[in-house]
Amino acid sequence: MPGFAETMHRTFFRTLSLLSPAGQALLLSRYFDWVHRAPDPWKLATDGYEQHKYRSTLRQLPARPYRRIIEVGCSEGVFTRALAGAYPEAEIVGVDVSERALARARVRVPEDGRVRFIRADILTHRPERRFDLVFCSETLYYLGRHERLRRASAQLSELLGPDGVLVAVHPWPEATRLHHYLDAHTSLSRLSEEVHASSPRPFAITVYGTRSGD
Questions:
Q1: I need a surface site. Which of 20, 49, 161, 209 has the fewest CB within 10 A?
Q2: What is the per-residue DSSP string for 66-92?
Q3: Which CATH code is given to the segment(s) 4-210?
């Protein structure tokens, strides 16, 4: 059962989702700039749990070439750097609402024509192109209520090109609720799910593909 602090945390973000998508995006941007007032607020670069989650996520990917990759909610670029190492030929885009986080991401993974970072949010971003591989990790629960989760699922599906792969990683069992909106989207088909229930902080890695003919 979630503790009091976590319950209040979730309630705060559900309240933000009563705003317009643009208003919600603005406040989320300001909130995450505040969170990133100190480097690596979630210890993504040093926490053993986070490193285990990254390795597990990469192992779960279908074995195929990925030419264009986007990471939604890239924060300071820790996983972006892992992606750049795992797929050295791929074009990689990291997206986050916090410009402060992105400034550190650009130091961690210098933009070089192959890797770039943009400030945008999942609810209003309009992609210039489609991607072979889309990551969305520890992000959906910030969006609040049902309508916003449905909108986010539609936005994520819009990022995928033909035969694209979407990977969603969120806490377990909350992932059941969050990933339900992806399951319900007509253009997505669930390929696999791996639940790490014995982890100190359980999580699920769910992999989707574009439906045949979409």
A1: 20
A2: -SEEEEET-TTSHHHHHHHHH-TTSEE
A3: 3.40.50.150
> Is 196 in contact with 189 (CB distance < 8 Å)?
no
Task: Quick: pLDDT tens for 59-91.
Answer: 999 999 999 999 999 999 999 999 999 999 999
DSSP 19-79: S-HHHHHHHHHHHHHHHTTSS-TT-TTT-HHHHHHHHHHHHHS-SS--SEEEEET-TTSHH
Dist CA 100 CA 81 (whole Å)? 17
Q: Give CA separation, 157 vs 8, 76, 90, 122, 145, in Å.
A: 30, 24, 20, 11, 19
The domain spans of the chain are 4-210
CB 74 within 8 A of CB 96: yes
Answer yes or no: are the C-beta atoms of 175 and 206 closer than 8 Å.
Answer: yes
